[in-house]
Amino acid sequence: MKHFLSILDLKATEAMDLVRRAKEMKDTDYRSTLLAGKTLAMIFEKASTRTRVSFDVGIRHLGGSTIFMTPADSQLGRSEPLADTARVLSRYVQGMVVRTFAQKNVEELARWGSIPVVNALTDLYHPCQVMSDMLTIYERTTNLKDLVVSWIGDGNNMAHSWINASIYFGFQLNLACPEGYMPRTEILERALKMGAKVYITDDPKAAIAGSHFVNTDVWASMGQEAEQKRREKAFAGYQVNEELLTLADPSAKVLHCLPAHRGEEVSEEVFEGPRSIVFDQAENRLHMQKAILEWIYS
Q: How many other β-carbons are positioned within 10 Å of the β-carbon of residue 5?
């Protein structure tokens, strides 16, 4: 049985194979009966547009069905132990797609359940998103090892998953994060020990220099709304705008996992401009997640 709780649940060869397979699925508008007769529980403690719809549609494309659960309409909202939830759901459904806060939640569900668990987002990692982003990059160049990819903003779950991706795909990753908002030290140190090429700074200009793909995210993620004003001050100068992009490679493209706060982390001009590939990126969630599900259930 396989789980997908972080990119490092894959082998390096499997990560590249998934990107190629997702590209094939996209090119052929792929359908199958792989999940025929199977129902997956979609357990979402956080609101969602792209993650919920892309997983729901992807599971249907593979012949399966879904049950959507939130704390408001399940015993999760009454603090039922996750160990109990995992063991009960394992008697009813054939998998769990989980969007939650703590990484330990998906790990506990995987530990106590007897069915596959997919991390659809935690505060620590967003592996489905970054694997989808690798598909978006691969559509534009297959020469991943010679790329420079930059991350401008919070050292959050996206930054952590980009660090993990850099281990397997071999690109140079430059991160620019303000002091106090750096990625977790243990995640960075593990990547460096595994041979990743990661450069981290608090200077967005240094991080974006020569970059082929530029990434950013909201300054205050879901659950951090009370920190908005403080974060706006900390992230002043971190907006991905036309001025900053003059330092990137002339053909550089801009990614954003959405939803975007235009005028904050990314300018309206860049978001709607020719460098932006954010809606290809959003579409690719569907195709990559189908490939991940096929990897789990084949």
A: 19
